[in-house]
Amino acid sequence: MLDSKVPAGPLAEKWSKHKFEMKLVNPANKRKFTILVVGTGLAGASAAASLAELGYNVKTFCYQDSPRRAHSIAAQGGINAAKNYQNDGDSVYRLFYDTIKGGDYRAREANVYRLAEVSVNIIDQCVAQGVPFAREYGGLLDNRSFGGAQVSRTFYARGQTGQQLLLGAYSALNRQIKKGKVQSYTRHEMLDLVKIDGHARGIITRDMITGKIESHEGHAVLLCTGGYGNVFFLSTNAMGCNVTAAWRAHKRGAYFANPCYTQIHPTCIPVTGDHQSKLTLMSESLRNDGRVWVPKTKELSEKLRSGSIKPADIKEDDRDYFLERKYPSFGNLVPRDVASRNAKEMVDDGRGVGKSGVAVFLDFADAIKRLGKDTVEAKYGNLFDMYYQITDENPYEQPMRIYPAVHYTMGGVWVDYNLMTTVPGLYALGECNFSDHGANRLGASALMQGLSDGYFVIPFTVGDYLANLGSFAPVDKNHPAFEQTRKEVEDKINVLLSLKGSKTIDDIHKELGKIMWEYCGMARTAEGLTKAKGLIQNLKKEFWSDVKVLGENEELNMSLEKAGRVADFIELGELMVDDALNRSESCGGHFRLESQTEEGEAKRDDENYTYVAAWEFAGENQEEVLHKEELIFENVKLTQRSYK
Amino acid sequence: MSNSKPVLSSSLGRKLIMSLTGIFLCTFLIVHLIGNLQLFKNDEGYAFNNYAYFMTHFTPIKVVSYLLYASIVIHAVYALVLSIRNKAARPVNYAQFDGKANSTWNSRNMGILGTVLLVFIATHMQNFWWKYHNDQVPYIEYQTDLATGNTTSRVLEASEFNDYQVTVDNDVETVKARDLYKQVDFAFQNPLVVGFYVLAMAALAFHLIHGFKSAFQTIGVSHKKYVPIIEFIGVWGFGVIIPIGFALMPLYFYFIK
Amino acid sequence: MAQHMNLTLKVWRQKNDKTKGQFVTIQAKDIADDMSFLEMLDVVNEDLTRLGEDPIYFDHDCREGICGMCSLVINGRPHGPKYGITTCQLHMRSFHDGQTIVIEPWRAAAFPVLKDLAVDRTSFDRIQQAGGYVNINTGGVPDANTIPIPKRIADEAFEAATCIGCGACVAACKNASAMLFVSAKISQFALLPQGQTERYERAQAMVDQMDAEGFGNCTNTGACEAECPKGIKLSNIARMNREYFTAKFFREEDVHTHN
């Protein structure tokens, strides 16, 4: 049984009490410690800046050419905070409750409460940094209701909230780089974790320009490397997003928790063809005014697909506004998992639209009639433009076509209340960890979690760990563990470079994506998952025997970069399938067809599955070992989620 | 900031020099045009030659004129310095560069336009300024009957001329002056000169359509209301009226006089 | 259905920053018009890989027009023939069958070529490090609604802040000037109350660093504004100039160095 190290005491006092109880590092001693931060998104940049401000020496690593380009930048909608500026009944407890419920009761109460608690500080911090949030005419901050929340608690910066928040954190990071407290390594990829006496003491990186394999030593390592959605090949993640750092750490002893919890976002632009490289998300805010529908009959759908009729030709009576029909009180604003699943149901029923038939409509005709084109343009203009650029269809004149796409991974590296993994000294922050969103994440909560972990949690908890080390000695960079790990990394690269088969890396990656989407996507069955496991194992063999990796190590080598990442995705894919198979209940984004209510909603099995599944790596080609962390709900009552 | 670079060795400082000298040269153009409008008077150059004397002998104006010469030199030198630096900022050129898609031709070719203008200024000064200052222009005497206001003129030989002179005798005013007007008339009988002047004024127009508003942008003027006014003045004042006004002079002498 | 086309690509290939590069002609066959430009390059790269040839290296990441990583000068235009988008948002329907497409990296001394079409833009980071921030630590800040900011000011600051740091302004400028980029950040902070405390110092420090990186000088052609995928306005450059000259001529006492 895993120990989450959640402090005792009433929920609302846990974090304050814990902050007091944690040991502090004397200001003069902080400079004797070095902390390695991998990834420079919201979690990484905010953590690195905050730790450097405290006096620690920090090194940051990112695979992009600049810390500013981490994929946090792409978040559109907003960031939640329990400020209650709108006087509409919001509170820390309500944000906590909504998040727990939204996560389908599979998140840790204490973590979620802390997240809601520090959410208010995040907004203050960002405003002080000069983040240009949207404001009302009176000059105060504007809020909107987002992702089905009943209160307006979402702060936003037009459609670019993630970018503005990341630039805020990046600016704080830049300030510390200028001061010499942070050393920034860009176009560097972490390829392994170095452990000494069981503790994380360094990482091995590859300089992607020169190919140089480097060792970096530190007293603690923070993984802020984001999610693993690219295991599906097609997702809303950036092309470079990968699981390699987290996965290699996993293979060094960090348990991986709930890997099967993936969020499929309902409002994405549908796939057009095999050449597709990624999927583009259209902000969820579109569902505030757009109405989701498909034709009532297959016949009409077929006519639409063949192009013999246009959407406007379908009479009101022949349209099925299925979300409004099934969920009268939430309507089009049901949570993401519910909206996605229903879209899939319509498509499976043969009522999908678009040339491929794998899409549903999101229609703004009524909104334009009600609000006028100008208002709709003011609210969604940039999104409509983006849609038009990609599809060449004008959403002011015809309904948008949308379909769910992989967007976020709730699962991740297992961490305790202090965000420490099962490897002492190794931490995981932001999307990289598993802790706050349970089985489904609510809109505008990812940014909140990344910044909460980085600005307001890790500066305290990492200090406690370092203070307890009992020594200020620098990490011994000549320790044989560095040389040995470095050699293992080099060997692996050499093996990859020796692969001269017939398949490209993308061939394999696309194949993996298809397996994952088919069997471990929006709906899963024991049968399908078992089949997927076999398929993935075969794919793994194919990868190591028939893939083609070009070039050499000592150059910018796209082929090599991809190869290492895809090799890890394959292994992760297998674990996701194992985890999905193990969890024979439905919850949040994990929908097992065997476990649904009479109305076809996700049905949890609280008796048997109120736990976090944390997997331990047991060796190459071995079955991973399951460890459970019991989820204890002292404050909320577990109920069947209902959005009727 | 003690360790900050001095303003004039910064990129913005150099641009400021371009901007200020440019604006100064623009204001000169207004004065120059208004003064030269006297060429259009049908008075055998009486007004113009008096004006020429005044402009070259009134001390405050002389001071300003030296500032003007300095501005021309500084404007040209800094243009050269900036151009060299700009070239260094892009050591490898594009194989294909579609400038017209994002900017006007004149804004991208201020250097070429400026070079045309520099050659023009040199020619222009050699033609008139140099000759005027080095006694290479004819002389003229005007006699005005102050009672009737009628003026007659006659060409003076060099031996008859000492210096600019105004005398009044018996209600008759006699003015002896260097006849720059005739020199103008003479120069503008040459179609090559006329052609070059008109071409240079076209270059001036394009230079200033961009340059005038650009100068204000450089000194930091950005205002919803005033920038459009500046742009209007730049285009219609300095891009149309002033160059056409100047260009009419050679054309007038060539075709009409 | 999607239209398909065949294209002739003239692509800049360069092994690394120490070797000379050259144009290489590559045929792109059977390209669907609903592919993005980068997906077209993906297809070309897959073909090259199958032939055992080194794929074309180009920078890209989010592929939704926000990370600023993608670049490419396409037929003489940064981010290609359309306005207001990045290369990753450009689709092949903007081209026609049989067309020749010349693809080059950003060209600037301050953006050395790393490989093929990828350039090193860390000069932009160094400019930001010189002063693109408010000097505050985490924690201890006032409540977010303490200082009301007029909506007009907040909106203007936001518009300046939308810069994605792609470098198209430098690429488009005939002088390879980075002033639009630098002015966007200076403007954001010059407008907001939070940026006031170090307003003048910031302008000086960032301009100094910009000059040190070897960018060219603005001649106000407006090419940067026209090609900026985020529509950053030229008026930001005027504001930067004003900030800088004010600092240099009138606010010397407000400008101090600190470590």
UniProtKB/TrEMBL annotation, chain A:
Its cofactor is FAD. Residues 35-447 form the FAD-dependent oxidoreductase 2 FAD-binding domain. The keyword Membrane applies. GO terms for biological process: anaerobic respiration. It comes from the Bacteria. This is succinate dehydrogenase. Residues 509-643 form the Fumarate reductase/succinate dehydrogenase flavoprotein-like C-terminal domain. It catalyses: a quinone + succinate = fumarate + a quinol.
From TrEMBL, chain B:
The chain crosses the membrane at residues 12-34, 63-84, 110-129, 192-212, 233-255. InterPro entries: Cytochrome_b-558 (IPR011138), SQR/QFR_C/D (IPR034804). It comes from the Bacteria. Keywords: Membrane, Transmembrane, Transmembrane helix. The keyword Cell membrane does not apply. GO terms for cellular component: membrane. This is Succinate dehydrogenase / fumarate reductase cytochrome b subunit. It comes from Sphingobacterium paludis. The lineage of its organism: Bacteria, Pseudomonadati, Bacteroidota, Sphingobacteriia, Sphingobacteriales.
From TrEMBL, chain C:
One of its GO terms (molecular function) is electron transfer activity. Residues 154-184 form the 4Fe-4S ferredoxin-type domain. Its cofactor is [3Fe-4S] cluster; [2Fe-2S] cluster. PROSITE patterns: 2FE2S_FER_1 (PS00197), 4FE4S_FER_2 (PS51379). GO terms for biological process: aerobic respiration; respiratory electron transport chain. InterPro entries: 2Fe-2S_ferredoxin-like_sf (IPR036010), 2Fe2S_fd_BS (IPR006058), 4Fe4S_Fe-S-bd (IPR017896), Beta-grasp_dom_sf (IPR012675), Helical_ferredxn (IPR009051), SDH/FRD_Iron-Sulfur (IPR050573), Succ_DH/fum_Rdtase_N (IPR025192). This is Succinate dehydrogenase / fumarate reductase iron-sulfur subunit. It comes from Sphingobacterium paludis.
